[in-house]
Amino acid sequence: MRMGNSKRVLFAAAFCFVGYVYAQEPVWDGNKVELVSEQLADGVFAYYPSNAKELERNGMPVATSGGFVIGEKGVLVIDTMLNKRLHTLVQNMVRKETDKPVIFAVNTSFHGDHSYGNMYLPKETIIIQHAHAKKYIDEHFKEDTEFMIQNFGKGRGIEEIVPTTGDVLVSKGGLITLDLGGKSVEIVDFGFAQTGGDLFVWEPKSKVLWSGNPIITVKPALPWLLDGHLLETLETLKKVYAFLPKEARVVPGHGSVMGREDIQWHIDHLETIKKQVQIAIDEGLSLQQTVARVKMPEFGGYALFGWVHPSLKVPAAYKDLSLAK
Ligand SMILES: [Zn+2]
Prior knowledge:
The chain has a single domain, classed as Metallo-beta-lactamase, Chain A (4-Layer Sandwich). Helices cover about 40% and strands about 20% of the residues. The chain is built from nine helices and 13 strands. The strands form two sheets. Strands 1-2-3-4-5-6-7 form a seven-stranded mixed beta sheet. Strands 8-9-10-11-12-13 form a six-stranded mixed beta sheet, with no helix packed on it. Strand 8 and strand 9 form a beta hairpin. Helix 6 packs antiparallel against helix 7.
């Protein structure tokens, strides 16, 4: 499912809102973000922006996070970043730890900040993507890059990007296991979580999960629901939570390493919207009246709340729950 024009306008408006906060700067600057890596277990690393911990605590947007896993045969890179500069920083972090080849790379979604760097991978690297992500890029690459330039700025390396899609595709509800040599990693579609082409990466030995954008980062950040589908997203996040052992660690799409319990905030948030919108529907309120009533200021600590809540999430819940009737 592609992002409709109206959603793109709204998405752009979100960045304008944040841009306003930052005096018209892009939400984060692909020419300036610095990355740090954190070792989570033998051969298992997260990477995230060096300012992630400070920003996420204050509910401000953070640039893209990912990771890499090193096995005896080679390396898996999780998410390839927005541009050549950021992708090179990732490759450099890998090189600091090993000289083994990058044999696999996976994109947690088609979003450019998670996949544009594919073109800078070595030729022999096998790229793994969701079938839906490949379809989206095949059909909408030009408008996608225009949209990303609009929101992340000109001269951030997006102009150079050539579409580079997956060699191995994961289908709806699918799971594939990669053998890195002495380490196996699972690539899982838990269900609709953000784009309909969302992949989670699970390293069972160290109990580390990479989530991509469906889990942005810790409280007070919240899911955006750019493509709607509140009920499905809620079910998927509950499934992910139930799948994870208590001691699991989660590398989110835009923040530093968090725990399983941190996902509960996101589930509680969506449950609260669902409950309150259902009451409004049962009372016969219109969408407009529902948006006016379901304000939920207790979740207002996130920079984008004032915009995504009334514009995307309450309408998504209203639509889903009205259809479910
Ligand atoms: Zn992202």
